[in-house]
Design brief:
The structure is a homopentamer.
Chain A (H helix, E strand, L loop, with lengths): L2 H5 L25 E8 L2 E5 L5 H5 L4 E8 L3 H11 L3 H8 L6 E5 L2 E12 L2 E12 L2 E8 L5 H9 L1 H4 L3 H36 L4 H32 L8 H67 L7 H4 L3 H22 L4
Parallel strand pairs in A: 3-7
Antiparallel strand pairs in A: 1-2, 1-3, 4-5, 5-6, 6-7
Helix pairs in contact in A: 3-4, 7-8, 7-9, 8-9, 9-11
């Protein structure tokens, strides 16, 4: 099967906001179905329509892998019928906004994960629902998540691994989801580093404070996506699933480890942002002190000529200094001298 | 049984503050009783008076569902007698202000939940007490909570599910309670978003600070309602109740999941409000710095004419400049020049 | 037995600061002994002296209940001898300032609880030590706690319950202690509400800040009294005590629940006080900004006449404007116009 | 054995900074050995040299108790040889700066505790290492901790208790260490109370802020000493040690309880200091607002004579008011009136 | 084997940034291999090339210890082949930036630790990956960590200990890593002490705030390195590894203890930095208050001559004071007196 065939499956369901996931399938383009294929021994043996899934499911050794993107209710019902999926899980898959979780319904597993990736310098969040059972995996993407065709390609490129069946597919998708967190974290990290340089140079302006605020909110959102996933991975570890051998266990442990690393990074960044906030408060306070000192110093210096000149501007008839020769120049000199002395005093005290 | 009959049961007990829950029952309108019916196989077979409950309770397969709203002591005693409820649970039900909890008294379960819903853009909190035992459910509402007749209608609309008996009724009520948290959270969320836009534009005024403060208090109150409910759900999961099959377990797990999602949302909003507070402090500090700089700049600029004019306003007899031709104009020009230069310097330093 | 007899036992030991607990016993008033009686089947069969306790203890079915208030060492030794109490527990009971705890010494239980109640609008803290064993309860009160005669009266009013023996007495006292926390919390709550209204109206003055500070300290102290009591209740639940039947278990669970509710209230109030602090900081900052703006505005407006008048106060011989007809009035008008324009500008910018 | 003999053991090892622990032993004063004795049945039967310890160890029923203070390496090696102590424990004992901990090496216990006591109004921290095994206790003190001779005296005064052997000695030393925390906490408590009075009266000066800062650091250090000790006590409780009967268990539980009480006190004080910080911030902010208001008020009042006088100081030829009769007095009166009105307005607004 | 031989192994792989770890091996200098040797009974019996490792591995009692520094892919593959290392572990070792962790792959252990040491007054972070299995240890260093040749020397100096095999080598390396944290903590500690002295003397300048900020970030990074290591040590304790006897267990427990002590130190320093931040805020606020008071005081004092002189500078024809004899001097004296009185008042109020 040519890679080219795989890549273009169903471009109709792809929103304009998601050019990265644009796919096209010349024949039977069905709204919401990104790809649907049957594998045996890790080799793709047929592309199927969703309606045929139930029939294929009964065959020995066949693994059906269907990828959906924001399916309509009719399509979801077909999938539900084909794999006997539980009503509650289908209900969850219909409305997005679920917490990342792993639920067991009879002998089927329902996994929810939140996705995040960078798109035009913006963080875009999405949600993926996975139905996994003996011999099938159905993935349902919501929002602007990356298409899993890349995962499918990679899996098909190593048939020996893919021969492990549905658990390997589940691992591949989770691994992909977690891998996609990394560039998001790196982007946030870069922005924080740019911000902290500004923080330490001068008091932040409104635009920077807004940026800081949005960074904190995005990190919070990312954290809400990642933290429950640690639990999902831990729960999966303790399930006694058919077909989970040591090799697969190691792979899942690797994902768990990766999620934890992501969580640690997020927590560090959150703490750094808290430090940034505190440093910014301190810088702002120091700035205010500097301005207050400067204001006080100049006010003092400029009050001298005003006060002295005011006194010699009085209209008393009998003010002997006024008729002194060079009195004016002496006063001018006195004013300048006092101002100069004050200036030096303030300078020495580091107020100016 | 017509829906119309179901809807109007006992309008007497409904306070004017709760138009949403207005119900009417033509016959035997008893103060405090919203509805009382017996079900068999999920079908409502009779509307009963509270006094008849004890008799019905002995019949096989019958499930009694009674809904009360702020019952008086006499009514509570009748209910207690009919179902042999424990004194302490009745005591709790009499006085509201209980923590959400699940208690087992003999073979009866006593559940307390706090409700919250929006009414005229205000969050209104209430409390619901549930007595659940073999063959009966008694709900006692306190405060301005929504009536559970909507729950009853929905249950009666799916008799197959209602045939599960008291546990299904308990599930339906809890599900309804948790569902009602969502619009409250959404309203708070909308208000926070409006607030955070203002926070990032300028320093908050007193009205906004008050709004922020009240939001925090309401979120705290909502959290106090929701968090112990997670424990209630978890405890219920580990009870070995008669009639709890897999299907019901899945439903209760779904409620638990929903409550957790609500808690996560609340915690996120709380954290966002904390960010808002910090951003507001920073914006306020930046605002003060800006004002201090402007004040200092204009003070400096305006001190120039005052000081120079003061000097040439002195009355010394011998001030040669005074008799210079165009002396006045030179000084005027000097003043304007110095002011202009200062203005540009401050401008360049972004103080003005 | 007449209530009158019960009420007045030993007024000598009651400090003047505790009029609520004033009791009097005409015969044998012994310093430190508030009441000492023997019960059988829930009925008070005899009032005894502490010295007789050991003899009564050997009789079947008798329950001895002794109430002490700040006993001297001699009295404590007598009690120790009568009930074979452990040295360490007696040591603890001698010096107050223990953490709330539950200890088992052999077959005797030693419980410490901290009490709090309102007295003349002030929160007063005390400490109660309880020795509980097969057939006896000894309570030792320290500080200004309420007398337990009210508990005794209530117990004697329901002999069926009191027939449960020492565990019921222990329950009654703990229930009373926890009930007494409620008015304290309500008083604090009322004060916080008064304070938060002031916080949201204007910046707090020193007296309010002090009040806020003291509220926080009192809440902290109350919390230190209540939180370990949750542990005490939980430990009691897991003890395998003789005579603890289901009914008693339910009662103790009710107390535990009550303590938890108290703790939740305290934590909420603490959080509200933290919000109050933050709101107060924000209000204070907003206030400072407003003042700075006003100061800057008026300084700018008033600098105008000063600067212009200064210029026309110069003594240059050749200042053509000075001899203009109506020059003075033109300048006056110019000054007024500039000031008025500035005023409107500042007004529009909401600086004034 | 006379108390006098016991008191003076080895003054050489005592630093000048520790007069409280000054001891002297006339015979065999060995550097680093404070006391070394053998007990049987709670009675001191011989004073020994460290070299003789190994020989004594083999005798039945003998308990060796050696107290060292900052021993040199040679002495530590002798002790290690005598009791077969583990290399790692000796290594720890050589270099102080260990965390409080309890380690088991074979059948010997190694306990580390941090000590704290008041000396000349300063908190002094030290460290004690204890080697406890069948029939011996070796204590090694580092830093300015109190001598344990007081403990030895108390133990010898109650031979029945001391007859319990090494576990009783361990208890006595731990109890002494924990008891010594109390005066430290009381001293800190007194200082905090003095500070909080100042905090609530006016904004803190630099000296007070420094004091506050040092208090927080000392509390942190004390907390680091105490908190791990709770774990040490808990671990000890769960050890199955030979010779630990119920009586000893109760004693150790008493120490645990005491440590917990100390920890609770420390945590309360830490929280009070946090409240103090926040109250101080609020007082400081209120202070600044008051000053800003006063400054603004006086600036406004004083600007009036300056502006008006400036206008009448202008040199226009045609200023009719100047030649009005009493014009000067009218203007003077106007100035005074305006200033007085402003003053009253500011007064009423509580700005002055 | 001479120490000299040991020291110089492979200088090629050492980056210029790491002069401390510079090594040279005259023969077979292979890029990335720092040392590779075989031990039997704790004695180095041969230096080997990585290619020979597989052959040596089959011999009884031989322990192979290979030290790598930033190996290229080819070298890693050779090592993987020689010891059958797991693909995922090799993958981790290729890309650094792993969390400290301990993983078991079959019968091999994979340990990740983060290193930190001081270099030219800068903290330098690195990463070490350890593959440990029956009869071999492979260490892979990334970044500027210290070479482990010092560890190798120490191990070879005590053959009896080294005879314990791979577990002893693992212990030695972990011990070395943890020991290297200490100078880093001491350097941070010294800097914090310098900073806190400045904090308490005056408001921090921008350079100090930046220093404070960087200290916090470095401590955070160090904490991220150390905290997961506590888990690694704890996990190791509970592994049932071949060849782990009591002596080794004690050694590993000693490392665990050391890591915990390091963590406690880091947490204390973090808390001290938080105190420093708060103290700095308070000092800054106090500073601003002082400046505001000084500014207000001088403004008031200097407003006096201006206002009075302004009044006598008015040009009214009829101002009787102007023609008073000594009027000018009286006014001068009045001005000076008022200023002096104000000065003393401000002085007394501690505003000046």
């Amino acid at each position: 099967m040519a890679l080219q065939d795989l890549k273009g499956v169903s471009g109709v369901s792809v929103s304009e906001a998601d050019p990265a996931g644009s796919e096209r399938r010349p024949a039977q383009p069905r709204q919401g179905v990104v790809a649907a294929a049957v594998y045996r021994g890790g080799i793709r043996i047929a592309d199927i329509a969703v309606e045929e899934a139930a029939a294929w499911r009964e065959r020995e050794e066949a693994v059906i892998w269907i990828g959906l993107h924001e399916p309509d209710d009719e399509l979801l019902l077909q999938v539900q019928d084909a794999f006997d999926l539980h009503e509650l899980a289908i209900e969850d898959a219909r409305h997005a906004h679920q917490r990342p979780k792993l639920e067991i319904y009879g002998d089927a597993m329902f996994v929810v994960a939140r996705t995040a990736h960078m798109m035009n310098d913006e963080i875009v969040f999405g949600e993926t629902h996975l139905f996994v059972g003996r011999g099938y995996v159905v993935s349902v993407r919501h929002g602007a998540s990356s298409s899993y065709n890349l995962v499918r390609q990679r899996c098909e490129a190593s048939p020996a691994a893919l021969a492990h069946g549905e658990n390997y597919i589940l691992y591949s998708i989770l691994d992909f989801v977690v891998d996609n967190y990394m560039p998001v974290i790196e982007a946030i990290h870069a922005e924080i580093e740019a911000l902290e340089e500004r923080v330490l140079r001068e008091q932040l302006g409104k635009a920077d404070i807004e940026r800081l605020y949005l960074l904190r909110r995005n990190l919070l959102r990312l954290r809400n996506a990642v933290v429950p996933l640690v639990d999902v991975c831990r729960r999966h570890e303790h399930l006694d699933l058919p077909g989970m051998d040591d090799a697969l266990h190691n792979l899942f442990r690797d994902v768990t480890d990766h999620v934890r690393r992501v969580q640690e990074d997020i927590d560090s960044l959150r703490e750094v942002l808290a430090f940034t906030f505190e440093a910014s408060l301190m810088i702002g306070q120091a700035e205010q002190t500097i301005i207050a000192r400067k204001l006080a110093s100049w006010a003092a210096i400029l009050a001298v000529p005003t006060a002295i000149a005011g006194i010699y501007g009085m209209n008393f008839h009998d003010m002997p200094e006024l008729s002194f020769r060079y009195g004016y120049f002496v006063v001018l000199a006195a004013i300048l001298t006092i101002c100069a002395v004050l200036y030096r005093l303030f300078r020495r005290a580091r107020w100016l």
